[in-house]
Design a protein that fits this description.
With 224 residues, the protein is α/β, with parallel strands linked by helices. The chain contains 7 helices and 11 strands. A 7-stranded mixed sheet has the order 7-6-5-8-9-11-10. Helix 1 packs parallel to helix 2. The longest helix has 12 residues.
């Protein structure tokens, strides 16, 4: 058995916890304490987040997409594969070390996606970009802090409140989509999406194709 090697660590935005990047052979893991936040071998639900969203905006001209959370880039790469040359994708990542890891030790799994001319990386709070303009985005994809029940940064909770969801709806163009990844179901979050005047679809997916942990993706659509 190949042992895990810790490559680097970084504080969470509140300075209270530590993220650790580990490698075992060609496999990468990002840990928070004993919790594995992501693994390079488990990409199915993150890719589904992009595919489900892009399928719903396929007819939009020159779509503009905001992705909250870079992670290991699975959602970004899937969105690039789904959409054409005219798409513009902005990725907001709050932890600068995650971007550094993507350009450094994990560069091989990012496969040049960060340097794609369609992509802009912003080291900032995705909530700030959501609140910066009305009708700016065709789709907002959130894979932030394990979903509505976060464990990394309490400030992320505001994204998933009724006020935060209403701000996301304002930031979307008519017919735009808010897609949210979660480690598991959350009936209260479904209710909040509806309170924010979204049409809501809840999709069950797996961490690795038809196998692995069961995750949930909400597809929330703004009326045209």
């Amino acid at each position: 058995m190949i042992p895990w090697i810790q490559l680097d660590s970084a504080k969470t935005p509140d300075g209270q916890q530590e993220l650790r990047l580990k490698r075992r052979g060609s496999e990468f893991s990002i840990m928070l304490g004993t919790n594995e936040l992501m693994n390079s071998r488990l990409n199915g639900s993150e890719e589904a987040l992009a595919k489900l969203s892009c399928q719903r905006i396929v007819g939009h001209r020159q779509p503009k997409i905001l992705i909250g959370g870079l992670g290991m880039g699975f959602t970004l790469r899937a969105a690039l594969a789904e959409l054409g040359d005219n798409v513009e994708i902005v990725v907001a990542e709050l932890v600068p070390a995650v971007v550094a890891w993507a350009r450094g030790p994990m560069a091989e799994i990012f496969a040049g996606s960060l340097d794609d001319s369609r992509v802009t990386i912003r080291e900032t709070d995705v909530g700030q970009l959501i609140r910066s303009g009305a009708g700016a985005w065709d789709a907002i994809l959130l894979d932030v802090d394990n979903g509505p029940e976060g464990i990394v940064h309490k400030g992320n909770d505001a994204l998933y409140s009724v006020a935060g969801l209403s701000a996301a709806r304002t930031a979307l163009k008519p017919g735009g989509v808010l897609a949210v990844w979660s480690q598991g179901p959350d009936a209260g979050f479904t209710r909040r999406l509806k309170q924010a005047a979204f049409a809501v679809e809840e999709v069950n997916t797996r961490a690795n194709g038809k196998r692995g942990a069961r995750h949930v993706i909400w597809i929330a659509t703004k009326a045209s």
